[in-house]
Amino acid sequence: MAGYEYVTADGSEWFRDQRWEPPIQWGFITLEVLEAMAERPPTDGSRRWVASDYNTLDAAVSLEGELRFFGLPNGSSNEVVDGLHGFVDEWHGALPFAEQERIAVYNLRLQSRSNIPPTVADAPTLPELLRTTELELIRSGVRKAVRGRDLLQRWWEWRRSVGEFEGQDSYEEATKALGRMTARLLERSVLPHAYDEVMGLESSGASEDVS
Fold it and tell me: pLDDT at position 120, please?
């Protein structure tokens, strides 16, 4: 069991090991999202959603739940995870959703999936849920309603760097933050072509500094 954390259902007990290392699964979780983000949408002027829009939204929202576990067991320290938190902040800062919006969309996804029997194959996608949902959020002590379809529009524009996102390069910044997270967690030799592509390393032959 060395090298892994253990916590009881009520969170009362932690397994402590000074040799603890981040589970390799963390790296493959971020890598999966990175590969989805590496697929850019078409630039033909079409207003339609394409498969990569659905895939990146679902991957990014599912990552929100996984990031809650990107921490250390009590009494342990690890330079990999210590440095990881800065890249998580970069990722969040570049997304087109505020913190309350990210949490609300994640909870919507989680709730919808918990209500669907495993035998149902045609479960609604996250965009389908958001198109008919109004989220109630509290911002600075004030309750505000946010239409799910407005969040979808924001995601679509962010992916294409149009509208308020034109010239911001925030999609690229988010993708690079994911790349840095992944490079922190996995050996360079196992990183796929998508990593070099999004980090701009294809032509230079250089390596990204993730220290």
Answer: 53
92 lies in which domain range? 24-199
Kindly report the pTM of this predicted structure.
Answer: 0.78
Q: Exposed, middle or buried: residue 161 (CB in 10 Å: 0-12, 13-18, 19+)?
A: middle
Which ranges constitute the DSSP H helices of the chain?
A: 24-37, 51-66, 79-94, 99-114, 126-131, 148-160, 170-185, 193-199
Residues 105-151 have pLDDT tens digits of 999 988 877 765 555 556 678 899 999 999 999 877 889 899 999 99
In a domain, residue 6? The reply is no
Segment 168-187, tens digit of pLDDT: 999 999 999 999 988 888 88
Domain presence at residue 78? yes
Residue 141 lies inside a defined structural domain of this protein: yes
Q: How many structural domains is the chain composed of?
A: 1
CB 127 within 8 A of CB 148: no
Q: What distance in Å separates the CA atoms of residue 14 and residue 103, rounded to the nearest whole number?
A: 26
126, 107 contact by CB (below 8 A): no
Asked if residue 211 is part of any domain, the answer here is no
| Strand residue runs (E) in the chain | 134-139, 142-147
